[in-house]
Structures are given as structure tokens and as C-alpha cells.
Amino acid sequence: MKNLPFTISLLSVLFFSSLIIPISAQENDFINEYLERHERSKEYLILVAEMMPEENYDLKATLESMSFAQHLMHIAWAMDWHSQSLMGGRTARDWNSDTELQVADKSKEEMIAKIEETFNKTAAFIKDFDPNRLTERLDYFGADRTKRQILLLLADHITHHRAQMLVSMRLKGIKPPKYVLYQ
Asked: How many CB atoms lie within 10 A of CB 43?
């Protein structure tokens, strides 16, 4: 009977640990599945960027739209901001003075290299991100969101701008690459 309190404590720890481990495993599954989707998205976007002739990179679907090149580099900017700044706490780049992730005077090849580099940096950040922090909450333009939701919003944002790039390709009579599932 002297060991009864110890036994109860040990059983309690084991019981509560069994509840936590599945949650942690689910968070790791989310990260792994997100990274797989992120990689497919990178491959598809780069294919889209490569298919558009460089002389059409300044094409805008409408006067108030971003150009094909601006959409491409905006995706890089958004990945950097969502991961490194919003989730990682790094001070955000100054859009008006930091030209690393803007079109500036970049060639098509330089923009494609920069988008690939940014996808890779974002993937490395997410791979190293503590999955237990996915439930942390942030202010996202006035909405209370978890960091898990921030990653989902980033994926939606990439898709949104890539779709506009596909419209630009169609306007130039270029058939976009076949849609790739799970991206």
C-alpha cells in the first residue's frame, strides 16, 4: 500500500501521455502533408512560369491587375511574410525598399530562381517548425487565426495568384500545363 500513491501518479501520467501523443502525431502529419503539397505547388508554379515567354511577363489581364511577373513575385513575397515574419517573428520586409522579392529588373530566369529559392526556404522553415506551435493564435488582418490556419491561408494565396497567371497564359493563347493533383 505504500506504493499506491506512486502507482496512481504513474498511471495518471501514462494515461494523459496517451492522450497527448496522438495530438502531437496529428500535428506532425499535418506538417508532412503540407510539405508534400507545398512541393507539388512549387513544381507546378515553376512549370507555369517557364511556359510563359519572357516578353509576356508584363501582361496584365486588366489595367488594374498585377502583371504575370508581379503575380509570380507576389507569391514569393507572401511565402516569405507568412512563414518568416508572421509565423517566425522576423521583422517583415519593407515592400517599398526591399526589392529582393519584387520584379524590379529581374529577368525571367532570375524570377524563377527566386521563386524556387523562396519555396525552398519556406519548406525548410515549415519542416523545422515545432508542430506544437500550430495551435498558437495570431491576428491575421483582424481575424483570430491559428498558425495551422496561416499555412492553409498561404496555400490558398499561392493558388489564387497562380490561377491569375493561368488566365494570362490563356489570353496569350498558351495552353497552361495540365493541372497536377494535390497541390
From this structure: 15
- Nearest residue to 172 via CA among 50, 71, 68: 68
The b-or-e profile of 141-152 (16+ CB within 10 A means b, else e) is: eeeebebbbbbe
**Furthest-apart CA pair in the chain: how many Å?**
84
Strands annotated E in 115-164: 137-140, 143-146
* C-alpha–C-alpha distance, residues 10 and 39, integer Å: 43
The per-residue pLDDT for range 124-147, each reduced to its tens digit, is 999 999 999 999 999 999 999 999
Q: Taking the domain 30-171, which CATH number applies?
A: 1.20.120.450
What's the pTM? 0.84
Q: How far is the CA of 165 from the CAs of 27, 50, 58, 72, 172, in angstroms?
A: 32, 12, 11, 8, 11
C-alpha grid cell for residue 158?
A: 499561392
- Please give the distance of CA 21 from its chain centroid, rounded to a whole number: 26
Whether 48 and 162 have beta carbons less than 8 Å apart is answered as: yes
C-alpha cell at 88: 517566425
Residue 129 in contact with residue 11, Cβ under 8 Å? no
- In this predicted model, what pLDDT tens digit does every residue of 79-120 receive, in sequence order? 999 999 999 999 999 888 889 999 999 999 999 999 999 999
Per domain, the residue ranges of the chain are 30-171
